[in-house]
Design brief:
The protein has about 80 residues and is of the alpha+beta class. The chain is built from 2 helices and 4 strands, in the order αβαβββ.
């Protein structure tokens, strides 16, 4: 997996509500498994982006489903080498 470019500063568009519902992940396999579990028939992964709220790193993913768009947020501190 290519190492993503990590944001240096806190992301102003990352909300407290998103942080409160962030799904903790431990590695890329865990993240992949959690994403594919939410992708049902006719769904696909759309846009995704890394966001920071120090000291944590988050990955926001938008899923396109037959019912509309859903946004999931994952805690991905492991991307920056911290547990």
């Amino acid at each position: 997996m290519k190492t993503p470019e990590l944001p240096d500063e806190d992301s102003p568009d990352l909300t407290d509500e998103e942080i409160g519902r962030a799904i903790s992940t431990v590695n890329v396999d865990d993240l992949t498994q959690r994403i594919t579990g939410d992708l049902g028939p006719g769904s696909q992964l759309g846009a995704h982006e890394l966001r920071r709220r120090k000291p944590h790193l988050y990955w926001r993913a938008r899923l396109r489903t037959p019912e509309g768009e859903r946004t999931l947020i994952f805690l991905t501190d492991w991307l920056q080498g911290t547990p």
